[in-house]
């Protein structure tokens, strides 16, 4: 006896998001589990789900060992993130304390200084690009103050602040030099 499967829910969508793909894959696996429970052959499951024999064979082995729950999505694929929420909260607090507190000669945060802070305070290895991405993730933006020609003190600040990071949500300013 062959069971006809309604395949509309398993059709490929144009949605290219990772979350959508994971949901569609899980839907296929759960449909396969339902068919395994109805004693369908693996060849019938391959045809019904529109996937390879190898995929169905792996699903079947997992289903035999753990049932339907063994075919559920477990976690987001890929490595675990380097910086968790606790790291981000700690870094946010340290950044708001100021650069002078962390033995810098002025209050300007540069990517190099943030990288050093992450390595010293969080004891994590971090490249400058990772520090930059982390600051962007925290909604911090690069800042450089506006200057007016002929004013030395403002020019000095512009030179020092060329690589400065502002607080979250701050709008970037561009030097009029």
Give a short overview.
It is built from 7 helices and 2 strands; from the N terminus they run ααααααβαβ.
What structural keywords apply?
single chain, mainly alpha, 48% helix, two-stranded antiparallel sheet, 7 helices, 177 residues
Question: Topology, please?
Answer:
Blueprint lengths: L17 H20 L4 H8 L3 H14 L18 H13 L13 H11 L6 H10 L4 E2 L8 H9 L3 E2 L12
Antiparallel strand pairs: 1-2
Helix pairs in contact: 1-2, 1-3, 2-3, 5-6
- What is the distance, rounded to the nearest whole angstrom, between the alpha carbons of the first and last residues? 80 Å
Give the ordered list of helices and strands: HHHHHHEHE
So what's the overall shape? rod-shaped
Please state roughly what percent of the residues sit in beta strands, choosing from under 5%, 5-15%, 15-25%, 25-35%, 35-45% or over 45%.
under 5%
Structural class: mainly alpha
Poorly predicted ranges:
1-16, 158-163
Number of domains: 2
Fraction of residues in H or I helices: 40-55%
Tell me about the biggest sheet?
A: 2 strands, antiparallel
Mean pLDDT comes to 78
Q: If helices are DSSP runs of H or I spanning 4 or more residues, what is the number of helices?
A: 7
Rg calc = 27 Å
Record the strand order, biggest sheet.
Answer: 1-2
β-strand number: 2
């Amino acid at each position: 006896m062959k069971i006809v499967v309604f395949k509309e829910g398993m059709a490929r969508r144009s949605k290219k998001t990772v979350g959508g793909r994971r949901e569609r894959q899980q839907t296929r696996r759960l449909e396969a589990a339902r068919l395994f429970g109805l004693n369908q052959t693996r060849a019938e499951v391959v045809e019904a789900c529109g996937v390879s024999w190898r995929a169905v064979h792996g699903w079947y082995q997992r289903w035999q060992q753990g049932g339907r729950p063994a075919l559920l999505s477990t976690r987001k694929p890929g490595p675990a993130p380097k910086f968790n929420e606790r790291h981000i909260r700690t870094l946010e607090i340290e950044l708001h304390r100021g650069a002078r507190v962390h033995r810098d000669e002025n209050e300007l945060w540069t990517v190099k200084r943030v990288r050093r802070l992450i390595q010293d305070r969080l004891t994590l290895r971090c490249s400058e690009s990772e520090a930059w991405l982390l600051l962007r993730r925290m909604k911090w933006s690069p800042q450089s103050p506006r200057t007016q020609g002929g004013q030395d003190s403002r020019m000095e600040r512009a030179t020092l602040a060329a690589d400065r990071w502002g607080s979250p949500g701050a709008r970037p300013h561009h030097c009029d030099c």
